[in-house]
Amino acid sequence: MKQLEEFRGRGLTVALAGKLRSRIDGPLRVMEVCGTHTNAVFRHGLRAMFPPDLRLISGPGCPVCVTPAGEIDAFLDVCHRPQVTAATFGDLVRVPGRRGSLASARAEGASVEVVYSPMDALSLAEADRSRLVVFLGIGFETTVPAVAATIKEARRRGLENFAVYSAHKTMPAALEALLSDPDLGVDGLLCPGHVSTVIGARAYEPIARRHGMPCVVAGFEPADIFEALILLAGQIRDGRAVVENAYPRAVTWEGNARAQRTIDEVFRPADAEWRGLGVIPGSGLALRDEFAQFDAAGRLEIRITPSPEPKGCLCGAILKGQRIPTDCPLFATRCTPVEPVGPCMVSTEGTCSAYYRFGR
Predict the structure, then answer these.
(1) Could you tell me the CA-to-CA distances from 180 to 28, 65, 176, 345 in Å, in that order?
(2) DSSP secondary structure letter of residue 221
(3) Domain 64-170+255-299, what fold?
(4) Is the pTM of this model over 0.70?
(5) In this structure, is the dihedral angle defined by the CA atoms of residues 23, 28, 31 and 36, taken in order, positive or negative?
């Protein structure tokens, strides 16, 4: 049965690839915003099925990748504080900063724990109240509701030895910043599926309207991606610029209202720096005053200092869609998944990682 389903799936993908070719009659540049889309396109070998005139370029959809070097250094500062345990997701541990990575800090004796959810970090705090457990929070709207719920639970339990360093970012503001660059030259956006489950397809309407940019929310299976590209190609061919949802089994027009309320209760918009994109007003999330006791940056008086990109690394330009990994002189030579120079080679959602594993 499984083999039959896989056979049917391949047949559907081939049919959709043919339909996509019939919709394209000239050069077409589409940005896949989400790092999971980048990974899926390479993993399934979809590029070999794309029409020659279609060029898919990657955007700033990898949360680990867009975390700037200065914040990585701030994370290292946190984990080196006495009686402090830094807890975070696995991808972040190997991202290099100016003074090494969280992994190298752990090897030197710092307390760094890999967790699968912010609630795991809360459990660490409850198990040992003599240490301050700081959850290093990165990610887009997908992961923020769980962080907000954990902070509310920490307050309910009276856990004063738990805090969050919020380096969270919101996707629509970054897309606005990208599309304000006249040199970007993108014809359409393949909008992220996971983020859209929270914010809804409606969140991209201002982008489509202000920038005349066709937008389609896509899922992650091969058929999902081809169906979204077909819709995008149809909009571009017809001279339309609207938002369409090609992932209705997971994404609604309005999004998850409960998750949105939880975010708004705990966090407020704040300016944030993105690797490659600079400071984008209102694109970050800071804790509201009533939750200030859980704000690690305030409690530990962490100061972010500007930190330059590693010499020769093109991660910033890759995140802006200006370059591709093979343009980088470090790619697959000095920069590999075993010894990464930039974050785009570290994360499973990173463009360089996808090119290295599947695209060479």
Answers:
(1) 19, 21, 6, 27
(2) S
(3) Rossmann fold (3.40.50)
(4) yes
(5) positive
